[in-house]
Amino acid sequence: MNYPLLLFFGLVPSIIWLAYYLRKDAHPEPNSVIQKVFLLGMLATLPAIVLELGLRSLFSFLPFSEGVILILYIFLGVALVEEVLKFFVVRFFVYRNKALDEPVDLMLYMIIAALGFAAFENILLLFGLGPSSPVSSIVALTLVRLVGATLLHALSSGTFGYFLVRSFFDGKRKYLYVATGLFVATLLHGLFNFYILQTEGLTKLLIPAIILIGLAIFVSLSFKQLQKIIKLRP
Asked: Residue 140 to residues 10, 114, 119, 134: CA-CA distances in angstroms?
């Protein structure tokens, strides 16, 4: 197993979910924009690493117990940082792009940015295994990321994207929608990470599975709801 193949396996989970969600778009987005948003999502992983390492050190100086510091780090130092950076990709590249011809596209672009982010995470993890790792270990990690963290990134950002779309429809409560979307995405992202990393037994898998299923249902229904709203608008 060499590094090009590790790169391939790192991209596979994101490509699978990207293909799935692109099929939900009745008016396909330009490939060039999709590729740029995906790539920028990958690049957003780099400042995320720097910020997460910095916040880990910063939180260690707080006068709290180790448990409280750990919770702060999981929710604020990781989940919040990652959700904000994925949003920045869309906010600064997509908002003023002529490809954004329908507000509902924001949900899709948030998912695309998130899948790029997850792809780079996957690549780093696989590279960490090393090129001499057994194929079985590489495939197993790829499958776990496919139905776990990669999907989580897509769904949490897709949920955030729903609230961004609603902010377009209700200018008076624009910032409330944005703040709510960020809060919900961060909370569920943090809860997923907490139960995966800090619990044992059935809850280690059950709670994350419930979060993923709930988010998947919400995102699916949100796409349908927003498409109906757009059809009814003059």
From this structure: 12, 22, 16, 10
The residue among 165, 159, 151 whose CA lies nearest residue 182 is: 159
Residue 231 has φ and ψ, to the nearest 5°, of -65, -30
pLDDT at 1 over 80: no
**Residue 176 has which token pair?**
């409330």
Please state which of the ranges 89-93, 159-163, 185-189, 229-233 shows the lowest mean pLDDT.
229-233
Q: Are 199 and 175 in contact (CB under 8 A)?
A: no
Average pLDDT estimate for 28-37: 92
- The residue ranges of every structural domain in the chain are 3-226
- Ordered DSSP codes for the chain: --HHHHHHHHHHHHHHHHHHHHTT-SSPPPHHHHHHHHHHHHHTHHHHHHHHHHHHHHHTTSSS-HHHHHHHIIIIIIIIHHHHHHHHHHHHHTTT-TT--STTHHHHHHHHHHHHHHHHHHHHHHHHH-TTS-HHHHHHHHHHHHHTHHHHHHHHHHHHHHHHHHHHH-GGGHHHHHHHHHHHHHHHHHHHHHHHHH--TTHHHHHHHHHHHHHHHHHHHHHHHHHHHHHH--
In the structure, what pLDDT confidence band is assigned to residue 2 with cuts at 50, 70 and 90? confident
